[in-house]
Structure formats: structure tokens, C-alpha cells
Amino acid sequence: MEYVIDLASVSKEYLLGENSFKALDDISFQIEEKQIVVLWGPSGAGKTTLLNIISGLEKPSHGEVRVLGLSLEDSDEDFLALFRCINIGFIFQSYNLVSSLTARENVELMMELAGWHDDGRNARLASELIRSVGLSDRANHLPAQLSWGEQQRVAIARALANDPRIILADEPTGNLDSSTGREIIELLRRSSEEHGKTVVITTHDERIAGLAHVIFHLDKGRLKAVDRPDRIRH
């Protein structure tokens, strides 16, 4: 079987002055197509670093990272940027929306970065994605005019804009109220079940853990346990 994500003995070290800090320590696991996978652990466990490694935003100090059959650790930055634009949707914890663009324009921008240059088609698809996250009446608003929950929904629409095979979400409900959090969880579930995406999520939210096919427990940069829980509906 060729896995969507395959990590072998991955470590990541950072230099802090004359000392080094190991954020990831000999991590190995595989993720199958269309799975919802949770990276679970306390702050400082290495969850965000692991997402960055999977996306090619950072390179491992040691080990092999294969995503969609390609080795990322030896790839140059231009290739990795194009690879992300085509294959990966990233939902950042801080949303990272472009402040000068409207909600719809933020979604369209991802399409342009992925090489989709049909403006009419992009505008139509962006409007459909904005509608799918319940923000049709906010499509022309700037990020500063949106609530945190609305910005997160725009970020999810943007993550789907390039029709990626993989969605990476960093604490997607961490700053949201309970009601908005449930909406975000439902959108992530639909991304996997209805749109066939592989979804990898860092979280402390037990509701998201209940959706997971696999939970990787991390602590101090090491993989401590792997759970395969039953699917739970919330």
C-alpha cells in the first residue's frame, strides 16, 4: 500500500544559542487516504512542528517524509511551494487571511496560487465554497469585519479552494465558542466523508478526537501511543 503520508524516523532539532532542542524525536507513522487523523498532546508536544514537516514548510533534521509518494526532505523550496499549492490545504491556528482581501477574494487567491487562472470560474467556485461554510452574506467583508468563527470558516473554505487531497488543521477550534466549534467540526467531517480528503488535525478538543480514525498521542516530541477509536457522532 502507498500511504498518503509516510514518516520514517523523523526528528527535528533547533539550535538555541549553543544548545539544541529536539522538537521531534524519531517519529514514524503512516496515514491512509480519506482518514481523519488527530495529533493529540500538550503544548510543546511537537504537534505544530509535525504539521509543518508534513506540509514541507519545515524540513526534518533526520528521517524521511513521503507525501503522496514523493520524498519532501530533499526537495527544493520552489517545488515545495508548488506542491503545497496543488495538494495541501492548510488551516492555520491564526487563520492567516490576507487583511486587504475580502472573504471571497481570500478563497480566490488560493485558486490563483494553484495555477487556476479562469477568473470567472474561480469567482463562481469561491462563491460556492463561501456558501458551503454559511457565509454568503459575508463574502464581501474584510477579515477585520468578521468574527473569529467567521474567519475560521473562511480559512476552511480557502483550504478547500485548490481541491487538495490533504487538509492540515492546526487547533481549528482552539479560539472558538462551543457552537462555532461544532460547525467547524462538521465542516472537517464533511471534507473527509463527502469530498474524500485526508484530514490531519492538531487539537485538544475531545469532540474532534471523536471523529478520528486514528489518534497519534505525542509528548515532548515523541510518539507515545496510537489509538483507533470508534467513530462518534456529536
Radius of gyration: 17 Å
Residue fraction in strands? 25-35%
| Main sheet characteristics | 6 strands, mixed
What string gives the helices and strands in order? EEEHEEHEHHHEHEHEE
Which structural class do the helices and strands define?
alpha/beta
CATH class category label of the domain at 5-95 and 166-227: Alpha Beta
Q: What is the number of beta strands?
A: 10
* Chain-averaged pLDDT: 90
CATH fold descriptor of the domain at 5-95 and 166-227: Rossmann fold
N-to-C CA distance: 32 Å
In what order do the strands lie side by side in the largest sheet?
A: 6-7-8-3-9-10
Helix content: 25-40%
**Can you tell me the CATH architecture of the domain at 5-95 and 166-227?**
3-Layer(aba) Sandwich
Q: Give the low-pLDDT segments.
A: none
| CATH superfamily heading of the domain at 5-95 and 166-227 | P-loop containing nucleotide triphosphate hydrolases
Shape: globular
The number of distinct helices, counting runs of at least 4 residues, comes to 7
